[in-house]
Fold:
Amino acid sequence: MAHGRRHRTAIDRIEIERNVIEQFLMQSKTFIRNNRKLVLKILLGIFVLIIVIVASLFVVDGIENRDQKRFDVIMREYVTYSSTGDRDKMKKVVLDLEDFIHNSYFGFTHRMGYYVLGNIYFDQKEYTKAEPLLRIYAEKDTSTIFAPISLLKAAIACEEMTDLKGAIGIYRKLDDDYAGSVIADQIYYNYARVLAEMNDIVNARRYYNKVISSFPESSFAGLARARLFMLGAQ
Structure:
């Protein structure tokens, strides 16, 4: 008897589900029949949207390919002229990179344009131009290994411009966001050194000790020990 009840319950459930589906289909047919113009507009809108999305993907892909080719040309010139020391040609490379940044809007090459140009200015000791470009790159590409390197150079640029507060702000961000990066030892060492310059001796000692304890094999650990000794002698 129990088996029969379970069997009837299953049949009833199937019948109910089938009836619900049939009812939904009937209601859908009625709605379409009574609202043909609206349904056609909706379908046309969906079709147009699909066309726009597909076209946009082709456009974006075309722009990225164009930017990639132009960036590759600029980088080949950069490698050639930086190795030969041709300053006039390097000026042209800088102008080309500036134009590339201003006339590209997204993608890997657009972001790398900021990084490369920032590093060129940094190497040329034009720190006022290098610092904002390096920071912009780090904001645009937070997840790459180049982001902490870029911020570290931006902080050093601030130091070179005697903007110690600006440097501290960047080192604080590096400490918060990139403590696990491959350059963490240098980040902590530089942070401690600038803190000492600003007479924040307590925190300077803390970060020097952090270098020594966390990176005992690093060359910065030896420098940190020497700096701690000098602080103790003051």
Summary: The chain has a mean pLDDT of 82. The chain is about 85% helix and 0% strand. The two ends are 97 Å apart (CA to CA).
